[in-house]
Amino acid sequence: MRLLLSVTGWDPSPWVDRFRRFLPGYDVVLPGENFEPSSVRYAATWKHAPGSLSLYPGLQAIFSLGAGVDHLTSDPHLPAVPLLRVVDEDLTARMSEYVVMHCLMHLRRAWTYEQQQRRQVWLDFRNQPAASDIRIGILGLGNLGRDAARKLATMGFEVAGWARSAPTAPLEGVRAFSGSETLHAFLGRTDILVALLPLTPATRGILNKALFAKLARDGRLEAPVLINAGRGGLQSEADILDAVEDGTLSGVSLDVFEVEPLPPGSGLWLHPRVHLTPHNAAMSDPDAIAKAIAEQIHRHESGLPFAHQVDIAKGY
Ligand code: NDP
Ligand code: OXD
């Protein structure tokens, strides 16, 4: 039995090593190696070459090595087999670390103090708001959004989340908004907007000038803040640059970009109010993720249904 590992931009060796460890009966192969295509039963991928997975007629399931699946759903030749995504507590905890850290960095003016230190400036802003003065709004109240929301609420922030549907179970300390008709009200009570949405036709480009203009203008921060760790395709980078220039936004944290790596000429690189990370808010750890995928394969082979199957019609 074979598992095909197909990754772009990541070193495949730790993944091959972990899959061999967690799936001892499996032959783990890479595209281009010498093997019989029909013997490939599973594929584990991160940005496979579009069309390449249609070469394996015996494929029973495709595993994304990340929580997002837009790298798969964008392939017009994706085989019609179950598509599974990562829902894993290691990855979830990493994302919440990023979100909580950036909310706190904006709240506590971390970058301003960093710049002051370099210039040996002792200037204490006495009007420091408390976490409880700040309204955070999380776009996407799924697996990642819910965990970040819970942790931010524990810190004392006023937290709300927006999703397509109403949550199946109430989230303590988090106000839930659902459906497009509630977006306006959700944005109007938001000082720090955190995007943790999947990239789908419905969410592409949602982080734009019109949306930024609807954020709260009566908050305790200088102006609203945007944090996007969902996908770069959610945002208009031209609109973000305009918004930080004209004061619609006071600060921006971005982990994801329209084009990755971010091109050298982008105005985001050097903007003093924009804080970038190279798409690593929640890294997929080979130990955690290969183990979770091996468990999925064992479930399937013992006749149980897969967990965390992607709804292709919804795109996530
Ligand atoms: P989930 O599928 O668990 O949650 C997605 C959430 O978005 C759900 O609440 C869903 O609503 C909501 N949603 C989707 N479409 C819409 C829409 N059109 N309008 C309103 N709400 C919508 O995903 P995860 O939380 O696991 O992951 C979210 C995304 O985070 C991933 O798709 C990926 O792009 C990104 N990510 C980024 C990483 C990084 O390192 N930067 C790492 C991991 C993930 P509903 O609840 O009603 O279905
Ligand atoms: C993911 C990611 O989707 O790392 O997991 O972006």
Molecular structure report:
This protein has about 325 residues and is of the alpha/beta class. The protein folds into two domains: about 1-90 and about 285-300, NAD(P)-binding Rossmann-like Domain (Rossmann fold, 3-Layer(aba) Sandwich), CATH 3.40.50; about 90-275, 3-Layer(aba) Sandwich (Rossmann fold), CATH 3.40.50. The protein is about 30% helix and about 15% strand. The chain has nine helices and twelve strands. The strands form two sheets. Strands 8-7-6-9-10-11-12 form a seven-stranded parallel beta sheet. NADPH dihydro-nicotinamide-adenine-dinucleotide phosphate binds near residues 142 and 198.
Bound molecules: NADPH dihydro-nicotinamide-adenine-dinucleotide phosphate, oxalic acid
The poorly predicted ranges are none
Order of helices and strands: EHEEEHEHHEHEEHEHEHEEH
Task: Tell me the span between the first and last alpha carbons.
Answer: 28 Å
- Describe the biggest sheet? 7 strands, parallel
What is the gyration radius calculated from CA atoms?
Answer: 21 Å
Structural class from helices and strands? alpha/beta
Overall residue-averaged pLDDT value: 98
How does CATH name the architecture of the largest domain? 3-Layer(aba) Sandwich
Helix content: 25-40%
How would you sum up the global shape?
elongated
**In the CATH scheme, what's the topology name of the largest domain?**
Rossmann fold
Number of helices: 9
Task: Give the beta-strand count.
Answer: 12
Supply the number of structural domains: 2
The CATH class of the largest domain turns out to be Alpha Beta
CATH superfamily of the largest domain: NAD(P)-binding Rossmann-like Domain
Strand neighbour order, sheet with most strands: 8-7-6-9-10-11-12
Name the beta content range: 15-25%
